[in-house]
Amino acid sequence: MIDREQVRKVALLARLELTPQEEEQFTTQLSSILDYFEQLSELDVTDVPPTARAIEVKNVTRPDELQPYQERAAILSSAPEQEGEYFKVPQILNVEE
Amino acid sequence: MTTATAVKTEYEAIIGLETHCQLSTKTKIFSSSSTEFGADPNTNIDPICMGLPGVLPVLNEKVLEYAVKAGLALNCEIAKYSKFDRKQYFYPDLPKNYQISQYDLPIAEHGWLEIELVDGDGNPIRKRIGITRLHMEEDAGKLVHAGSDRLSGSTYSLVDYNRAGVPLVEIVSEPDMRSGQEAAEYAQELRRILRYLGVSDGNMQEGSLRCDVNISVRPVGQKEFGTKVEIKNMNSFNAIQRAIEYEIERQTAAIEAGERIIQETRLWEEGSQRTISMRVKEGSSDYRYFPEPDLAPIEVTTEQLEKWRSELPELPAQKRHRYETQLGLSPYDARVLTDDRTVAEYFEAAIASGASAKQAANWIMGDIAAYLNKNKLGINEIALKPEALAELVTLIEDNTISGKIGKDILPELFTKGGSPKAIVERDNLGQISDSGALEKVIDQVIAANPKELEQYRNGKTKLLGFFVGKVLKETGGRADPKLTNQLLAKKLNG
């Protein structure tokens, strides 16, 4: 179960602005999703190590070789605003880590 | 009447450091863009470090090697199984809205390093500082606040993402330090170790080494920690020490005045030499870490680990111990010589070529260091090679030349190099130790200064120094000083 307060907190952390109707709607929907997953807790997993990923791969690395990306202008221009070679962002009001 | 004397409460500081250190790789931690410092804004960016949809980050193998080597050098246990996690927060310097870091399974844990301070009598004070953990992560971009140098005065901000994705290791110490001096020494030793390993240049001005300090104060004897304050923005070891000393005084005064210490982040202001409040920490932030699904976990094999271990150089603390116990150097000399690996290796090469340790140390820390400082050179950039230094030291020790002549030929050795022995022969600089030859010069000097001779014979015996000086001058500094003294005294008295 999830309550409305938790939905508000998740929305705040994700920088989402919800209307009261949406808060209500997501509280119901998220609760039913969580209830569905809750069925898994019927299983006894005492001796099963936690799984972080579904594929058994490890130690995937690449050599330290320089390959500059050629289309930086395309990345810059895909931003909402630029100034010269910089990305331009709105005034920062809240300092948060 | 009796007076009650209030017992003054003693306080102690509990200090821990979090250090971010840039690894000296050519490319970023998860993409192939350059890590070069000082490039034009947003030139070293790519879809991976910018977090564009559909990209796949892949770990740079050098980052793993450097992190493991740093962990080994800090006496850590290297994790059998390690992984990356996403740390989520919003800030414009973070293009993906999450930072790829390591949360619960860092690559290295439970280590220590040894700091060495020298007390007033020149004796070493050694202390182990615990290392809680070392983990790999990516750096964020750099914000430029338009219209003001302060965040609050800006109407908008500009962002340069060249630093985004630059590889870092974060090294967290145990709260084992008790003074600003200990903390500054810890940071310096950490940098020395990383530089010896060649995994980081540790340049504080360019932001390759950044230290955040956690500090609290409590009455001596109290078990619980006081409220912890974080200090940021120190860009030299000296600033670390002074910021801590300021903060100890501030917190102690507040406690004595009955005020509450607020858990907050404070900034060190270099100009005013004080810390100022930056923000109040409202509980711990909710970063919602979860395992990074795009990066495979890391399991360092035993063979790989042993190979990297075998590549570690002798580290500064080991060199200091060896110089003190085996070479008989003072803790001070050992500390100065081992501060820079190239200097230590130069010194060791000179000894291997036959120089006495004490003499080689004196030349390196004296005339050579002065020349390097004056000309802003590294010890490997001068023409004087360690083998030649050994030759020079030996020429002086076996009385072939005087120490003064040694200093006289240094400029040529610094710029042109060559063999000191050959220079001495070429310029006929060998010490005159032949009594007959010296007596001839002495006779001339005495004959040329009858007035001083008379004064000397009338009891003004300190004029001996005057005559010695004259003889040295006549011989271009080549007269054996000891023999000159003996012969002169005999002639003057006779």
UniProtKB/TrEMBL annotation, chain A:
Enzyme nomenclature, EC number: 6.3.5.-
Signal peptide positions (record): none
EC class of the enzyme, as a word: ligase
Subunit field text: Heterotrimer of A, B and C subunits.
Transmembrane segments: none
Matches recorded under Gene3D superfamilies: Glu-tRNAGln amidotransferase C subunit, N-terminal domain (1.10.20.60)
Record field: catalytic activity: L-aspartyl-tRNA(Asn) + L-glutamine + ATP + H2O = L-asparaginyl-tRNA(Asn) + L-glutamate + ADP + phosphate + 2 H(+); L-glutamyl-tRNA(Gln) + L-glutamine + ATP + H2O = L-glutaminyl-tRNA(Gln) + L-glutamate + ADP + phosphate + H(+)
Designated name of the protein: Aspartyl/glutamyl-tRNA(Asn/Gln) amidotransferase subunit C
Family: Belongs to the GatC family.
Keyword line: ATP-binding, Ligase, Nucleotide-binding, Protein biosynthesis
Purpose: Allows the formation of correctly charged Asn-tRNA(Asn) or Gln-tRNA(Gln) through the transamidation of misacylated Asp-tRNA(Asn) or Glu-tRNA(Gln) in organisms which lack either or both of asparaginyl-tRNA or glutaminyl-tRNA synthetases. The reaction takes place in the presence of glutamine and ATP through an activated phospho-Asp-tRNA(Asn) or phospho-Glu-tRNA(Gln).
HAMAP family per record: GatC (MF_00122)
TrEMBL record, chain B:
Residue ranges occupied by any Asn/Gln amidotransferase domain in the UniProt entry: 345-492
Complexes and interactors: Heterotrimer of A, B and C subunits.
Gene3D superfamilies the UniProt entry points to: 1.10.10.410, GatB domain, N-terminal subdomain
EC number per UniProt: 6.3.5.-
Protein name in UniProt: Aspartyl/glutamyl-tRNA(Asn/Gln) amidotransferase subunit B
Family statement: Belongs to the GatB/GatE family. GatB subfamily.
Function (record text): Allows the formation of correctly charged Asn-tRNA(Asn) or Gln-tRNA(Gln) through the transamidation of misacylated Asp-tRNA(Asn) or Glu-tRNA(Gln) in organisms which lack either or both of asparaginyl-tRNA or glutaminyl-tRNA synthetases. The reaction takes place in the presence of glutamine and ATP through an activated phospho-Asp-tRNA(Asn) or phospho-Glu-tRNA(Gln).
EC supergroup of this enzyme: ligase
